[in-house]
Amino acid sequence: MQKLIECVPNFSEGRDQNIIRQITGAIESVDGVSLLDVDPGASTNRTVVTFVGAPEAAVEAAFRGIKKAAELIDMRKHKGAHPRMGATDVCPFIPVSNVSWEEAIECANRLGKRVGEELKIPVYLYEKAAKDRLRSNLAVIRAGEYEGCFEKIKQSEWKPDFGPAVFNEKSGATVIGVRDFLVAYNVNLNTKSVRRANSVAFDVREQGRVKTEDGTPSGKPVLDSNREPVRIPGMLKHVKAIGWFVKEYGIAQVSMNLTNIEQTPLHVAFDACVEAAANRGLRVTGSEIVGMVPKKCLVDAGRFFLRKQRWSEGASEEELIDIAIHSMGLSELKPFDPKEKVIELKIESAEQKTSLVKMDLREFCNETLSDSPAPGGGSVAALMGALGASLGGMVANLSAGKRGWDDKIEYFSDWAVKAQQLKDELLSLVDEDTAAFNKVMDAFGLPKESVEEKAARTAAIEEATKRAAEVPLKVMQTASRSYGLLAEMGENGNPASISDVGVGALATRACIDGAALNVRINLGQLKDEKFKTDLQEKVRKINADSEAQFKTITEVVEGKLSKS
Q1: Which has the closest alpha carbon to 313: 387, 395, 396, 392?
Q2: Which positions are annotated as active-site residues?
Q3: At CA 254, angle to CA 252 and CA 258, rounded to 5?
Q4: Of 335, 449, 509, 557, whose CA is between 20 and 30 Å from 257?
Q5: Which architecture characterizes domain 183-349 according to CATH?
Q6: Measured on CA atoms in the order 151, 152, 156, 159, is the torsion positive or negative?
Q7: What are phi and psi of 414, to 5 degrees?
Q8: Each residue's pLDDT tens digit, 206-236
Q9: CATH 3.30.450.40: does it fit domain 4-178?
Q10: Rounded distance, CA 208 to CA 236, Å?
Q11: 281-289 mean pLDDT
Q12: Rounded to two decimals, what is the model's pTM?
């Protein structure tokens, strides 16, 4: 599955558009990086840039941006309203999709090392990447700003994590780190009163409200032993919130920053506002997301609302996102377009990929039938596997909705969710197989005039062909997991759908047998005997296991059909 990490470097230039364009141009010069937003501020003299990509590409893009900023920005002349200490003031990485905290921290360390060694800029690590917990807070590191760093850096406790322990007069210092994804999220109320919206905000935010002797907002504060006000904590961790009136819409909102969406997801914040508003005689009428969100936010929300309905969570990602939009009223104030608001979907839309999976059935068949060798048997095998998993998931969803089976909803829902995951993995392999074949063709097209070119071409063909053999093997391995799903549905699913289990098993076996043929034809072109032997043994084992599982499921299907 695609790995995505977000990077949000802040550059100390917000007025000169030529400089800003050169910096963003350096970032965009890296393949695999998508520039999502450029937000310059004249008074702050600062530009916040947001881009995403795979970890390796994001590190390279960040380095090129920092390098270009060091060339063009002279901190000796910089003036602005925002605190700053360097040409690239801060550069955080934020995991978006399939990237662990450990991988993100490794990105920060790799970038910090390069910036320190190659650009001679002092680098401090902050938040989750901090090596010293006393430096985890950005404000602490930046205290004294650019002007104060000349002396600060000489202190032993402020020796940089990377780079020279001498302040770079022109470029200053840079803070690099890893932080949580922050979501700006507003919940709409059926009131114009800021005071009442603030009451809801204080109910839900982590900081809560000050405790008073008479329990009223205007009452005398209760003080602790240190003469500090005692606070009543709110319902949600990692949430900052206030109430405000939005003249444009004529309503009051609870405006929140969710600073840890793993601990407090979007849907939890929404439901907390619903509960707090209801307790005060108010109603939540909808909500809005400011900026962009990872796809997981809305997918998880969709599953949450299906679970509350006591319905199967095994819906497609598209349907889950649609359920989340409707359940949280995200289109109440203005239309919510997932292709513009969801990071992964925005990237897909911007790249305008020619994807087999995005074609309709007729287009896919026409493309397969054409005189082009791709898509071919490998992509078709992966599609058959996706259909086999889909049939198993269909039986799970139908069984979850069967009258009188309410006590089995969770069981069938779990299997339907697994079916969706298998379907998505196999569909991604439809495109991956064709991409692998095209890489082989590209390798054959390399020049072969000189001895060096011939050697490079031979090596490229060998590597591309190995990949072309590995993809259908991955199809076999993924599709084989569908047998567990189909076996469970054959034994325990809705009896009226037993024929669908049978067709699903046939599609899965056809997928595995077809993918095996594609492994074999690619292995025949390889010179690496050990690689060939290893893959041949894996294919043999998967095929043998497939035949055994197919036979078992077919016996169950035939047995139930004979009784119908």
Answers
A1: 396
A2: 82, 433
A3: 155
A4: 335
A5: 2-Layer Sandwich (3.30)
A6: negative
A7: -60, -40
A8: 999 988 888 777 788 888 888 888 889 999 9
A9: no
A10: 9
A11: 97
A12: 0.80
